[in-house]
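Our platform keeps sequence and structure together, in a single record for each protein. This encoding replaces a full spatial description with a residue-level series of whole-number codes. We quote a single record here, exactly as it is kept in our systems:
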Amino acid sequence: MKTALIFGFLLGCACSRTLVVLENILTKESHSTFLSDLSNKDSDIVYKYATDNNLSIKKYGESLYQNIVILAPSTTSFGNGITANDFLEFLDDGGNIVITANSEVGDPLKRIGWRSWNRDR
């Protein structure tokens, strides 16, 4: 049920390019069903690790993706100097973000959640 809701959100906007940010190699295995379903519905998926120095969500001021799925709940920082503000700007520019979390949520994801929640108040 949750997976269907996420897919409806991501794909209901006729988007075509999705960045999946992984915490580590085990994340791809532990979320294989979700990722397989996503790849069946969206053919243009880019996988990057949260700490990848080539991680980028913009180029020349333009968003590279329409969707971002963050499967890196406990990451303490993102590669290439990406910050919570960069993700919030991505949202402001019309992008979609799905964030997974657990009991060990890292500060960057906490900031994204907190700032997103407070913007609407």
User: Anything to note?
Assistant: The first helix runs from residue 2 to 11. The radius of gyration is 14 Å. The first strand starts at residue 17 and ends at 22.
